[in-house]
Amino acid sequence: MSTDLTIVVPTYNERDNITPIIDSIRKVLTDINWEIIFVDDDSPDGTADFVKNIAKDDSRITCIRRINRRGLTSASMEGLLASSATCVVVMDADLQHDESLLIEMYDLIINDQADIVIGSRYMEGGSTGQGLSPFRLFVSKAATLLGHLILKVNVTDPMSGYFMLRRSVFEHQMHKLSGKGFKVLLDLLSSTTPGIRVKELPYTMRQRQTGESKLDMMVISEYYLLLLDKLVGKYIPVRFLMFVSVGVIGVFIHLLALSILHKTMALDFIYAQAGGTLIAMTTNFIINNKFTYRDMRMTGTGFILGLFSFYLACSIGAFININLSSFMFTHGINWALAGVVGAFIGSVWNYAMTATFTWKKPKSR
């Protein structure tokens, strides 16, 4: 029997929510041939094993377990690619999405009234209810506002994690998707071709019952990456822009350290500049390792080796930095300006050298 609807549910530490979400879907989708694909990012709480045990008794339940990969967008995309159904829907595992909306979503697509149907919290009749903390509500609305910079269709809730579409629509657009960020819908709507029919249905977001929100600085940075990729990715590599952004932070850290060492602790400028350079380099490595090169992030012994590799790769830039700024200072240039010029020139070397030696991609076999 063919499947009419695939429900894709990305998970990470959602073991306690698996049974409730399956039960709720069983109650609602009584007249549709459905399947659920859980895409689990190797949850420490054993979510994948729990789903697989349920799947032994229900062939409609499937689990894709991902190792060393994280992210809502990529997880959603893998689930969508695994489907063979006419329609696919993405929804969260935290029970905040109203499953009773599934029938209306499905009818709109099957009756050829829409290609994408979005569950909206921000249109008339919709609400975030008690589902978002003040911080998450602020981030959601700010992200929605910024998201309109790259949208090709007019919708009220492009950050919704609850939407249904024809599988053929996704497959037609999938090579245009960046795969970055934490909302695949925004990626999809910013990549879609003209003429796509999008409808929104209001729903009230429920309060999370168990588990914790996945919103953190990593998720926010991924959203920033998605915006950059859609706005300028055709012209400038997004990783370079991230590296430059981290470099700007490093300049301020460098100046702060230089000010403390030279003005407060009265170290000779050349020693203060060397200390500021080392502190800035260390900070830049940590931030770049966590965000810019997240897909190649080093941990444990690799982190230490990577740090020293970073130092080595930046050594030429640091040498130019220290000596150029020292030369400028001894010839009457203001200490802050001398420090900025030295740091900037050094950063030109840093990106090329670290991309080559520190975070180099493994050779394909």
How would you explain this protein's 3D organization?
By secondary structure, the protein is an alpha/beta fold. 52% of the residues lie in helices and 10% in strands. It has helices at 15-28, 47-55, 72-81, 102-110, 134-147, 167-173, 184-189, 217-232, 238-264, 269-292, 300-313, 315-330, 335-357; strands spanning 5-11, 34-40, 61-65, 87-90, 116-120, 163-166, 198-202. The protein has a 7-stranded mixed sheet with strand order 3-2-1-4-6-5-7. Helix 8 (217-232) crosses helix 9 (238-264), helix 10 (269-292) packs antiparallel against helix 12 (315-330) and helix 12 packs antiparallel against helix 13 (335-357). The longest helix is centred in the C-terminal third of the chain and has 27 residues, at 238-264. It is elongated.
CATH topology of the largest domain: Spore Coat Polysaccharide Biosynthesis Protein SpsA, Chain A
Shape: elongated
Main sheet characteristics: 7 strands, mixed
> Kindly state the mean pLDDT as a whole number?
85
Number of domain units: 2
List keywords for this structure.
Spore Coat Polysaccharide Biosynthesis Protein SpsA, Chain A; seven-stranded mixed beta sheet; 13 helices; 365 residues; alpha/beta
Quick take:
This protein has 365 residues and is of the alpha/beta class. It has 13 helices and seven strands.
Write the layout of secondary structure elements.
Blueprint: E1 5-11, H1 15-28, E2 34-40, H2 47-55, E3 61-65, H3 72-81, E4 87-90, H4 102-110, E5 116-120, H5 134-147, E6 163-166, H6 167-173, H7 184-189, E7 198-202, H8 217-232, H9 238-264, H10 269-292, H11 300-313, H12 315-330, H13 335-357
Parallel strand pairs: 1-2, 1-4, 2-3, 5-7
Antiparallel strand pairs: 4-6, 5-6
Helix pairs in contact: 8-9, 9-10, 9-13, 10-12, 12-13
